[in-house]
Design brief:
heterotrimer; A mainly alpha; B mainly alpha; C mainly alpha; A: Cytochrome C Oxidase, Chain A; 17 helices; about 0% strand; B: mainly alpha; binds protoporphyrin IX containing FE; binds copper (II) ion
């Protein structure tokens, strides 16, 4: 196609990008002497340089700080719930306070923490670096989506503080539309706004993966974290708008006192549940997929092996993204939806466990005959694999129509989803945080304390939620402040576990903060990992790569001897000569 | 932009799905509700919106060719068409309001008969009474529909109207956003932003959104307005 | 101004000129014709068939609009993928939800 004379055709992005990379004379940033003199943290100063930044790395940090605070808030609410459950008649809270406490815990943890945590922080920070780009496809949109998210989150927190919310995280009408006297409207608006931000972030990541990959970064060479983020973004884009619509219809009904879920004029409250779970089941995969992505990166590094079955893992992410949309009815087995539909959903639910299982098998196979070392990130990964497997398997109990009739809305469900979300996502997040902290800050944290924290979290977690399988199986229903005295032992065990867990989560706050001031310099590649992100300095320079990287190998080539080049001859990097390995994994510099 | 439109499709998909579910349950009520709407304004609006989709493609063409007067002209034309659409829409809402076709919890008492034919006083919503009036004024088949309905069914027509207001309301919101974008492009055009002709791509991307708003209307038109029975004699503004 | 050469416009790659005036006019006329048809159908009483006929017309209109006005026919792979994905996932939403409403009255026992 010859371009018309008036309008020069837009050149494909990769070519245009190359224009940006005028040949550099500075040495490549792979030397291990210490942090690059100019890096993304120190190249500009002052509040405004952070609040107006379009640098994806800084935006990642912008997410990190409020997310930590939100996690703390959600944790405090959880603490209240657990303390209250120490005695069968409620130890500390009034009835409505109890409702507000568990709702605050659920909503904050889901909407304000688990959904944005890895996409917001690690996704923002590392997806562009991993594909070899200078930034996201739309840097300004990225900043906008942070503001939208932060605004929505503030809205939500305000709604919780002023008057609270007592509908549970599921907002079921007609309770939420007619009877609840709490801030359903504001909270709904908060969910709507943060959802919008989540859509924008998803758009950005998809566009980045499609259009910003460095030369040679084929789909088959993308790190699996990027694949997972890609699948997550697809889910975000496809599912979130339906939640937005459900919440809007609910808000309309609440404002006008009359609406389409209102049974008195012939409406059907179940319809809300359909729309809600169309989003919210896929949303649990929005939460877990990025975590699974992180696991791939960490597990290969600490067993010093290539991932077992790259393609299977990559496609299982996409598989989860698709099949995840076919099973939402398993949350509604007992709601009055058609019984035959329930059967179909039950069968499809068995199906969705397959891609998750594929991943678990691949991770275990990756460990097999690896040279495993047990640094903190790896401890979290091992915790993840064990706990997530338990969570996933108990999901099957719940997915089977017959057994769910017994287990629905009991502590068994609570234990199930905490095993997947805390044991899974929370551990994956800790693994990711500990794995990438040296890269993000350039500092190394205490080895001893971090390993201790991992163990404390694991012990605390198991003590909290294993008893709930038992009490749930014996029929203890969820969301009640009172319970029969025979369950008290289990509840006390849970509360004790929650306390230990709490200590575990606070520990990283201290030693990670301490590392910023007292930690030794991490160097570019403290874990001797092979990914592209480890070939640049820590913390990275403002534009990540001083030269356009040309990728010649897959992301996990731990078998290649060149990986040792990093340890033995860190300074002998060649500059500018095309085709010469710069450092390790076959990333060559070009221009 | 296409990726963003996917989310819009699913957003409207949510409400369309709800609409379908209820239409299956309550076909009669939906027919009656649609019959009570104003088909004339809706038809005019359909053509207005289609024309505006046409003018915006002309605007793209002009930008591509570097014809700046043409670009501004077509952008203005698009904005005018969109605004006229909104004016008509406002007139229509006002008409509905005057006829009392607004769902609410206000109740009133009517004379009616119970199952055994005994005369009773029944508490029904004001909306149901108004709906009865509107349909009876339209005479012919519309009146026949109304006559066949029980009071409970008339009450349920409120669900149709909830859909009518929320779907058209969301559509109007999207139109307002679209008009904002168009005005912005017009200002840019005025400032000479589109001098380098390859920047026509900005208008093209924005036009996708505008076309999408049109697309939504293309489906709302048969689903909301044309689901009932209309006759040509009773057209009015 | 000077930076616009360097900055890649990545949101939509388009190597083809936009539709000609004649082309757009033709598309518009087709759409208007279909709209007339939709209106005609709206004013006649076809009974239960009406909704299907009018939806069919709307679908044709929608396809013409997306393929020609929205230039889907020149879209790259990603564009087609997104368009198809949007339709497919909306279909899934409808599939299960509507199935529920159609089968709820059947009992298994
Ligand atoms: C391995 C596949 C999985 C299966 C088969 C499965 C199955 C189920 C089923 C059937 C329920 C409904 C239980 C009931 O309400 O009676 C449920 C609830 C839940 N699951 Fe899963 N699940 C799986 C994985 C996950 C993952 C990975 C997450 C999150 C990261 C998750 C989070 C949840 C949550 C939050 C609920 C409770 C929702 C509520 O009612 O509040 N599940 N799961
Ligand atoms: Cu689920």
């Amino acid at each position: 196609m010859t371009p018309a004379t008036h309008a020069p055709a837009i050149t494909p992005s990769t070519q245009v990008l190359e224009l940006d990379y005028t040949p550099q004379t500075a040495p490549p940033v792979t030397d291990l002497d210490g942090p690059p003199a100019v890096n993304y943290l120190n190249h500009a100063h002052g509040w405004l340089s952070w609040l107006l930044t379009v640098d994806h790395k800084r935006i990642g940090i912008l997410y990190l700080i409020p997310l930590t605070v939100f996690f703390l808030c959600g944790g405090i609410a959880a603490g209240l719930v657990r303390l209250n459950l120490l005695t069968p008649t409620g130890a500390i809270l009034e009835l409505d306070q109890y409702n507000k406490a568990f709702t605050a815990h659920g909503t904050i943890m889901l909407f304000l923490f688990l959904i944005p945590v890895i996409p917001g922080i690690l996704g923002n920070f590392f997806v562009p670096i991993m594909v070899g780009a200078k930034d996201m496809a739309f840097p300004k949109l990225n900043l906008l989506s942070w503001y939208v998210w932060f605004g929505g989150a503030m809205f939500f927190i305000a709604a919780l503080l002023i008057g609270g919310l007592d509908t549970g995280w599921t907002f079921y009408p007609p309770y939420s539309s007619k009877y609840s006297h709490t801030n359903v409207l504001f909270a709904g608006l908060g969910v709507f706004i943060t959802g919008f931000s989540s859509i924008l972030t998803g758009l950005n990541i998809i566009a980045t993966v499609h259009k910003m990959r460095a030369p040679g970064m084929t789909w088959g060479r993308l790190p699996l974290f990027v694949w997972a983020m890609y699948a997550t973004s697809v889910i975000q884009i496809l599912a979130t708008p339906v939640l937005a619509m459900a919440v809007s219809l609910l808000a309309t009904e609440r404002i006008f006192g009359i609406g389409i879920f209102d049974p008195t004029i012939g409406g059907d409250p179940l319809l809300f549940q359909h729309l809600f779970w169309y989003y919210s089941h896929p949303a649990v995969y929005i939460m877990i997929l990025p975590g699974m992505g992180v696991i791939n990166e960490v597990i290969t590094c600490f067993s010093r092996k290539n991932i077992f079955g790259y393609k299977a893992v990559a496609w299982s992410s996409v598989g989860i993204a698709v099949v995840g949309f076919l099973v939402w009815g398993h949350h509604m087995f007992l709601s009055g939806q058609g019984i035959y539909l329930g059967m179909v959903f039950s069968v499809l639910t068995m199906l969705v466990a397959v891609p998750s299982a594929v991943k678990v098998f691949n991770w275990v196979a990756t460990l097999y005959k690896g040279q495993i070392t047990y640094e903190a990130p790896m401890l979290f990964v091992i915790g993840f694999i064990v706990l997530f497997t338990i969570g996933g398997l108990t999901g099957l109990f719940l997915g089977i129509l017959g057994s769910d009739i017994h287990l629905h809305d009991t502590y068994f469900v609570i234990a199930h989803f905490h095993f997947t979300m805390v044991g899974g996502m929370m551990f994956a997040w800790q693994a990711g945080l500990h794995f990438y902290w040296p890269k993000m800050t350039g500092k190394m944290y205490s080895d001893f304390w971090s390993r201790l924290a991992a163990v404390v979290m694991l012990v605390g977690f198991s003590l909290t939620f294993l008893p709930q399988f038992v009490s749930g199986y014996h029929g203890l229903p969820r969301r009640y402040p009172y319970y029969p005295a025979e369950f008290q032992l289990w509840q006390i065990l849970s509360t004790a576990g929650a306390t230990i867990q709490g200590i575990g989560y606070v520990m990283p706050v201290f030693y990670l903060t301490a590392s910023l001031f007292f930690g030794r310099d991490a160097g570019a590649n403290p874990w001797r990992a092979t990914g592209l992100e480890w070939q640049i300095g820590s913390p990275p320079t403002p534009h990540n790569f001083d030269e356009l990287p040309i990728v010649t190998h897959g992301p996990y080539e731990y078998a290649l001897p060149s990986r040792y080049a990093l340890e033995t001859e860190p300074h002998h990097t060649t500059n500018g000569t095309n085709g010469h390995a710069v450092a390790g994994n076959g990333v060559t510099s070009g221009h | 932009m296409w990726l963003f439109l996917v989310t819009e499709v699913l957003f409207f998909g949510g409400v369309l799905c709800a609409y379908t579910a209820y239409r299956i349950w309550y076909p009669k009520e939906f027919e009656a509700g649609s019959t009570a709407l104003n088909p004339l304004i809706a038809t005019i609006n359909t053509f207005l919106l289609l024309s505006s989709s046409f003018t915006i493609t002309l605007a793209i063409r002009s930008a591509y060719k570097g014809e700046h007067a043409g670009l501004r002209l077509w952008l203005v034309a698009t904005i005018v068409l969109g605004t006229v659409f909104l004016c008509f829409k406002a007139r229509e809402y006002y008409g509905d309001y005057e006829e009392g076709l607004v769902p609410s919890q206000q109740k009133t008492l009517v004379d009616t008969v119970d199952e055994s034919g005994k005369p009773i006083l029944k508490e029904v919503s004001v909306f149901a009474v108004n709906l009865k009036h509107v349909l009876e004024e339209k005479e012919g088949k519309a009146k026949a529909i109304s006559d066949k309905m029980t009071w409970n069914e008339r009450e349920r027509v409120q669900i149709f109207f909830m859909f009518y207001y929320s779907m058209t309301g969301l559509h109007v919101l999207h139109m307002i956003v679209g008009l904002g974008l168009l005005v912005w492009q017009l200002i840019l055009a005025q400032m000479g932003f589109f001098r380098p002709t390859e920047r026509y791509i900005y208008i093209e991307v924005m036009s996708l959104y505008w076309h999408f708003v049109d697309l939504v209307w293309i489906f709302l038109f048969p689903l909301l307005y044309m689901a009932g029975i209309h006759s040509v004699e009773h057209l009015h503004f | 101004m000077s930076d616009h050469v360097q900055k890649p416009i990545i949101f939509e790659e388009d190597h083809l000129p936009p539709a000609t005036i004649g082309g757009s006019t033709l598309t518009f006329l087709i759409l208007a014709g279909l709209a007339c048809m939709a209106t005609l159908i709206g004013f006649t009483d076809l009974g239960p068939a009406k909704v299907w006929v009018s939806l069919a017309v709307a679908c044709v209109q929608g396809i013409v609009l997306t393929v020609f006005f929205m230039d889907l026919r020149h879209g790259d792979k990603l564009t087609w993928l997104t368009a198809v994905a949007a339709l497919f996932w909306t279909f899934l939403l409808f599939l299960f939800t509507i199935t529920d409403y159609l089968t709820r009255q059947f009992f298994a026992f």
